[in-house]
Fold these 4 entries.
Entry 1:
Amino acid sequence: MTVRVLLLSAFLVLPPALTAETGYNAWLRYAPLDEAVARRYSEVLPAAIVTLSGAAPIQSAQQELIAGIRGMLGRNLQAVSGTPAGSAIVLATLTELRQAGTPFVLIGTLPADGYWLKTINASGRRYIVITAANDRGVLYGAFAMLRKIALGESIADLDEKQSPSVPARWVNEWNNLDGTIERGYGGRSIFWDDGRSRENLDRVRDYARMLASLGINSCAINNVNADPRLLGSDFIPHVARIADAFRPWGVRVALAIDFGSPRTLGGLDTFHPIDPAVIAWWKFKVDEIYRAVPDFGGFVLKADSEGRVGPSTYGRTHADAANVVARALKPHGGVIFYRGFVYDHHMDWTNLKNDRARAAYDNFHELDGTFDENVIIQIKNGPIDFQVREPASPLLGALDKTKEAIELQITQEYLGQARHLVYLVPMWKETLDFDMRVRGGRTPVKKSVSGFVGVSNVGLSDNWFGNHMSQANLYGFGRLAWNPDLSARQITEEWTRLTFGNDSKLVETITRIQLSSWRTYENYTGPLGLQTLTDIVGNHYGVAVEASERNGWGQWHRADERSVGMDRTVATGTGFIGQYSSAVARFYESMETCPDDLILFMHHVPYTHVLHSGKTVIQFIYDSHYEGAETVARYLREWKSIKGRVDDRRYREVLAQLEYQVGQAMVWRDAVSNWFLHASGIPDSRGRVGRYPGRIEAESMNLSGYVTTPVTPWEAASSGKASRNGALTITFPHGKLTAPPPLAA
Ligand code: GCV
């Protein structure tokens, strides 16, 4: 045997988890299974895979099964079309099966997009039938089958029906036509570049495949802060190209629109929603889109919010605005998601009765019953804006005669962006399971919604998000949209095993880190319902406790020298709590029952207020920050303990991300704790805050060439000062450090 052959066989027997991976295939890696496991599956899988139609999603299903089974089991299925001559995997809709006749006729019904996996034994042949009411459902069934194999579940005698919890499972991509992404952390847009659709849409196809694997059936491909140019006749062919790339994966394209378009784009002198010319313009525009994209999904509209125009320009209601567009979409079966994220960002902060949290309910509740049936109100999970912790939005469940969708943010805008590991499924579960106690019974949020919308914002980075672990948030969103009853643990274990492999220590470690990471992040960035204490008027990333105050944006925590928190009670505060059903309102109104996690979201209390945990508010703030930072340091150790069980590239990349997060968590810890020490004057009972033995402040070193400057916000640097500008030598009490000059010096 030559050296080259020896090397080749060594490579072939390497455990799959150790080959370098970019993360591009996310949870669709189809890595080879353990030989014994693979053998068991091979014994029950027929050798042929049959389709009964040429429908593109069913063809995709066939290709996906062939690739997946080849990858996991090393078997090459034979692709066949038409009625099978022998044992086979059969991919067909229920109608096609009926047409094929005995033994394929299955008696039963399925809702759109649901699937049925069924083993049929007849005349000594074995068929694994993957069927559904529509083509897309067959594709979802194929992905479910592959997931079963990857997770080691039995496929020996199948009879499993599954259908999605809601018909609308959408993602929104806040992509701008120039290729940038608002609040996107995984690189530039996969859709747009330089004012047009990207030449190469391979990434779009691969993204659609990922979405399909989760049952996501529509994707709005541009920023909700929408560019009106997108509806231009010269632009629609670009949208159609993207729709073509999505179609084989059953994903419909959708667009975010600007409500002023009849004027800015259409040349009318108005965008008044009941003006006949405006009504006609929307109809003309929508008809034009459907001519180019017959399976177009619909629109998302952000109106009267954060500077976007809306019906208020003409003193009209949100229902007027939604309905004019809805009526244009209706003949084509399209829907409009009208965003409930409407608020005034110029509120008078000195008025203690003002409250941004009230806005969604105040703006929409009274309009219930006035929206057309193809309007869905898209409501963020919390009443503010994707903060680290918020209660469920009171608008969820408050619309009895109007469809509503929950909007969840997959991109981690206020949650560490791509740089902190923060897994959001436990947070989303809390909202989805929260019982709004409306309509006289148990009404968890998940039962009130007829749509799920995830703000995903994937980009061109190899792993789509700029952080391997963030992929779990898209996975979790899709799985919850399909079935919100799945537990966070089940989703996490599934994702980990599909993404990193079945090694039990690895699965246990990654699952443990992911499941606790939201609480950890909350501990060091905004506990007790303070919300994320970040620069709310800037990039929403670093620590800036004061940034929330003294401006019109309404993300106030109202911390002063004695007390902290927003009084949202009915008795003395903004009355926000009164927007909930009486049972929920009673629970939040009383400090006896209000959970510690939300106490400062609902109440303004002295720093010395004693929580249910027995700690004072101020001590809790100190302790949680230390605990959060310590837990991130533990994540790093835990990650190191699985070295060799994860492929080298992803191991190193997550390691680097965690190392960075350890440092950032300390910066947050010290900044927030010091800020509250400064504000309250109450020392940390454990003597940590403001005392850092062994720490040498840069500005107290003997620096040559550096200039000491104050930092804003002051709490973001120890002692409120930093040293900058290019000196090379630092002399400090224990020695000397020589550093290269900064690049920008
Ligand atoms: C797309 C927050 C974000 C904005 C975003 C807005 C929204 O305010 O910071 O970037 O705009 O929410 O959801 O419309």
Entry 2:
Amino acid sequence: MKEQDFIPSTYKKTIEKGDYTWSSPSNIALVKYWGKKENQIPANPSISFTLEGCKTTTSLRFEKKINDNLFSFDVYLSGDKKDDFKPKIETFFKRIEVYLPFLKDYHFVIETSNTFPHSSGIASSASGMSALALCLMSVEKALHPEMSHQEFNQKASFLARLGSGSACRSIEGDLIVWGAHESIEGSSNLYGVKYPFDVHSNFKNYCDTILLVDKGEKLVSSTVGHNLMHGHPFAEQRFKQAHENMDKLIAIFKTGNLKDFIEIIESEALTLHAMMMSSMPYFILMKPNTLQIINKIWEFRQETGLHISFTLDAGANVHVLYPENEAEPIDGFIKQELAPFCQNNHFICDKVGFGAKQL
Ligand code: PMV
């Protein structure tokens, strides 16, 4: 598929008004996307677990208006009008207008809420942008009912990517690849695809407990961070490494080798932050408690032989990843030993999920 293939031909149906609701999850990358080209094209391929519990639910009400060549919409978060969200959505609408030419025909009311606290430091852009893209796709489906399920999901992912890159990995589950990789047929820079190969049962229902180390607003946005990969002294080597790590994960998913899995994902997390620390300007998103937690995880793994591991997003929070059959002792350890490093002892227990749902 090429970008032009997502431009629809004239719609056969018309529709006056309607209302759609989607719930879409967050996702956590195992091989990280960091660095992009124009039009949200990733500099390297990435793969993520879709989450189950951390979700955004978005309702989109729409009613026909005179096409005055303007976007018209209101946004609410948990019932409160959020005019400060409007510029981001307006930018998104501008980017996707060519692919959804009906956008200026309607007034939209976007009502959104997250299952996780808004100020938790958990990025809501992946779940939020994917939920909105899915609602808009429901409008397109009403105008073009012949669209297949596969076309619907592919275009939803394509549009979500234009809102926030990683959002394209939130439409389906449980493992999603985004970015062209030579070993993964069908992988694309334009949208996420389901991981197509065998996955060992060790990875079924994999747990992700998110430790909320810092609930504040990020000091450096991911947009700024991605852009700092242009001219970064280690960029080319890093992009190459991401390709290699994807290949290594293919073998690991097949055999279920958790020791090797941990090595790749922890290295990916630390490399992501190493890229931030070695960009110009340089910056650090980890906090002292992020490092305390990482050290505690390493100690506990050494002592017990359990397969507890961590990954990081572009922030201070820690995602603790572990297999379902080791959840009991690890959950106890998290509660006793890691929660004290979280803001107000706050952590969220989640696990791998299967993608967005229409409500
Ligand atoms: O989707 P963005 O632009 O917020 O970038 C997300 C980047 C990371 O979360 C750090 C990595 C990833 O692949 O999700």
Entry 3:
Amino acid sequence: MTTRAADPTAAELSEYVAASRALSVSRNRIEELASSRVVTAHRAQLDVLQRHLLADPRVFRDMFIADGMQAVAAEFRQPELSSSFVATLWQMLLRDDDASRVLMRFVWNVPLGQKRKFIRGIDAHLSGRYPMFAGISVGWPAENSIPPYVRPAAERTDDFELVNTGYLGYLQIGYTAREVDLFVWLEAIRDKQCTDSPCELGQLIKGHREPKGGCPVQIHIPTVLQLVGNGRFREAMELIESVNPLPNVTGRVCPQELQCQGVCAHSKRPIEIGQLEWFLPQRARTFEPGAALARLAGRPDPWVTATKPPVAVVGSGPAGLINAYLLAADGYPVTVFESFHALGGVLRYGIPEFRLPNQLIDDVVAKIKALGGRFVTNFVVGKVASLSELADAGFVRTFVGTGAGLPRFMNVPGEHLVNVLSANEFLTRVNLMQAHREGYETPLPAVPGKRVIVIGGGNTAMDAARTARRLGGHVTIVYRRTQAEMPARVEELHHALEEGIHLATLRAPSEFLSPVITSGSWAGSANAPHVVGRAVCDVMELGAPDASGRRTPMPTGRSETLPADLVIMALGNDSNPIIRESEPRLTTRRGGALQLAEGTQRTSVDGVYSGGDAARGGSTAIRAAGDGQAAARQIAKDIRLPAAEIRDRVARARAYTDEATTPNTVLATRVLATGIVEQVIHAPMVARAAKAGQFVRVLSEPKGELIPLTLSDWDATQGTITLVIQGLGTTSLLINRMQVGDVYEGIAGPLGRPSVLHDYDPATQTVVFTAGGVGLPPVYPIMREHLRLGHHVTLIAGFRNLDLRFWVGEGERVDALRADYPDLLDVVYTSNDGSFGEEGFVTGPLERMLKADQAHEASRRIAEVVTIGPPLMMRAVSDLTKPYGVFTVASLNSVMVDATGMCGACMVPVIVDGKLVRKHACVDGPEIEAHGIDWGKLIPRFGQFRPQEKASMVRHGLTL
Ligand code: FAD
């Protein structure tokens, strides 16, 4: 035995033989088993699985996920979720993959009790990492949720950056994009999917035309919540955008507490539908920039395909923008005509950027352009062209979305004082014209350190107050009811109070006074009596409810005086009369809003639709959008035209749009006298519509200032207008430096009312024009019109001296008129120093005429006097003619911003029946009956921004 064991070779050999024998047995057995039925079936299954794995690996993932979900479901059956399970679950949710979406779907679908368990789990186990989860389970889902992120008041009151940064705001404080998605998802899973969808459809109330609450643009709220609840964010966003192209705008400004959230089943803490509405597009904008436009790329241009007739949209507020978008998306060639140089309506000029960044309006405009929509700015419908003229130009339908831009005032004594202004003017200066920013030319009343009172309790008041606060003012909102009745969005009021704005409720200003002049800053200031310093307020109490259901404020008989260096009136707006005055067939309701046929957006004029504030009076952005949307549907349904007519209309409307968008290029310039320049500018639409007495609003460069300039001449055939500009401030001096080929940023006009040309007998009457300095150019076309009508005209043109005279030499305009109308035109020249014509002012010859007229010694009686020139000269003429009872009109080129009535800056205090009434030079004028004007109150207004103008000239290194 020992011998064998001691032989390793033999041992290895015998081991080999044994193993070979065992292997052979196993091989036989494998072959035997391989052909068995059971193993054959198993191998076939493996084959199939292998093929599936290669073709679609997700099948396997789903299998594993399904297994995982079994485990998750099992955990959810426990009384509470364990700390480790919640942590793992959250980790999986954070992975943003298929499995996490299955988990989201799972949680969305489990019964409420299980959802609560999940929320208790994250509250208990994750609130260390997410402080906003702490306590969330108390009263969840009805009373608790994760709020969107609002920048703290201390951080935000000095800047114009967004205040409510929404759920995406959590990114700025260190959370990841996926975490933010999950916060939003947590909000969505509070939804109950109510069967009657009140958030979307509102609640019907007997006797009311419109339901209470609901979504005016019907963004499919329940489905959107369901999609978000299932983690399908992109689909949710695309669903919203299919009906509302501006959710990133409406979601931020809509008064949700009155609409979708106002009727939410979770009445104590409604689901943050508005936040979700704008989160979705903003999320896409942040993480997939350009995707929104890419989705619209490659669509055929409706102006080229010409399969549907063109539609004109007037006004680019929310009503007009949604209307244009939906029609363009439906294949209609659309042109939007907007009176301002910038698009967006109140969204741009009213609502400040700390609530709504302008870039978001630009996004909407870009989408409309991507669909082929076209925009014409500086085009005031009703002035440049009437609605009928748009129809003649080819547009088969017109949607009027002109808003309600005419600010209301109190009409109380002292309203004329400098630094009493409308919120529209204040906000336009800041939001549209960026007056508060370095490098922009628009002046702004001084705000830093000033006591600002804002009158009103709506959104406009909040915006004005918060803007003034950001500009360094000490702001008080004065409101005649109590805080509870304030119509502003709850959020805005809350933010305003957080920002340190004071409320003076149950107070109604009854008079504004100039400052009490002591030894303070006003001592010795000549301006002091003309500037506001105090507001006398009636102390009110609440009486019985009025028609709106709100309790009526009643005076108590007591009053108090508030100090006020700047008074901003935010009392609501009425409709602008420009369109309705240009189209008498348009019927209106009380307050001037356009009347619509019951249940439609159709106006009384065939083919003309309206909506938004133009038809409702001051309302909300989302209602305006709802109207624009409804009008788009109705327009698309109403039109049936033969293909040939459609093609013809498209061609004509296209040519019209092209012409309206041609640049305003300077074609010729001529220095008339020191500091006075004449420009001929390409402006075919203005030239075609211009009438004597009208003016234009010019913006020379993007950061410039909007200023009014009277039309000195125009040539409809050449498509040109002539302006004469005297360099008096930065803007006019810079305009004077423009060269041939330079292009204006925009010219809007003709604006204002044309001169009223009465019938006069040339044999016995003469119309006297007194033109001081650059008063001659605006006088010229009016004078010419009278001459064309066969009237006799006397021109008294005054210049400071020989060097400053123009248009009076041989062959010049006045001379040419004399040649054309030798028997109808008498001319007298004056100069202050006697270097040209008669020495003295224009009042000298005028007084002689008045006296001769009174003494019946004149060959012709004075039919009327028209005076245009420096305010002091116009006042002198007015004072001179008044005792003679000679009808006198002054053409006022006042301080203006928009020049269409929207801002109220060009207030003219006029006495009517002994009472001070406010008129506006841009809509009631520019010609105003001179004897009614309270010149003492008007003239200081011309100098309102003199300090700012001086500072600007210094900045630019300019001198006069
Ligand atoms: P608008 O937005 O007024 O737009 C009308 C457009 O038409 C303007 O661009 C105007 O220049 C142009 N236009 C006017 N006349 C002509 C013409 N003749 N030719 C060519 N163009 C013309 N609503 C809310 O829901 N939430 C808010 O938070 C809110 N805040 C507000 C804050 C302020 C300061 C203001 C003033 C209003 C606010 N509103 C708010 C109201 C809301 O903005 C309006 O209800 C809404 O903008 C109306 O939309 P619209 O399209 O009818 O008109």
Entry 4:
Amino acid sequence: MRKFIVAGNWKMNGSLAANDALIAGILAGMPDSENVDLLICPPMPYLATAADKIAGSRLKLGAQTVSEHESGAYTGETAPSMLRDVGCEFVLVGHSERRALYGESAQAVAAKYVAAQSAGLIPVLCVGESLEERESGKTEQVVDEQLNAVLDSAGVATLANAVIAYEPVWAIGTGKTASPEQAQDVHEHIRRVVGELDETMASAVQILYGGSVKGDNAAGLFGKPDIDGGLIGGASLKSEDFLAIANAAAALG
Ligand code: PEP
């Protein structure tokens, strides 16, 4: 039985004061359910403070990106070991904003995934198609290419310590959510692709959906058999919105 994960990607939002209030709100209302893990991914400068605030709780910490390098002359970058050092367990890799705005190639994403795991982090590998790709019938092809770039270099066995997030680019921050059926189709496809390599891994790997998930659509999405929770952007910035999504998952657990 796979657990749900509800992960908040705060993107480039927040301040010390706002984060304190947000974390306090989440901690005060977190569902007491063994079937849901809650994760927050604040911006880099706030990770260490967030780690202090959540210490001793069930709330988990992740970063939004990571360098593929261990250390050295990479100005502005953050090494995987540094994220571990400040208390991160997870890191997003290949978020569509990183791919589109910062030119992260499939190979760079694969290198980040490998580097993250080498440091003991759990990568949340984000894959997903643009609107144009969906409309031209290329959704599965795009998702396969993004997934296979990682599986070819890291190996399917590494999914034991990873999470996949299906995030159709056209649904991120747009208010347009994939219908539960549209999302389920792609999740099922991803599980089938993994299953062609390793059946056990396919049934164990958690696949999150991301793209305008809110309190009022979460239950429909999470109720689908291959959707194991959500990666949440906008609705992770208010504790009551984030908790509504977490509670939807807990109610299904
Ligand atoms: C995201 O940034 O990963 C995301 C899914 O954002 P939103 O929920 O705002 O669409």
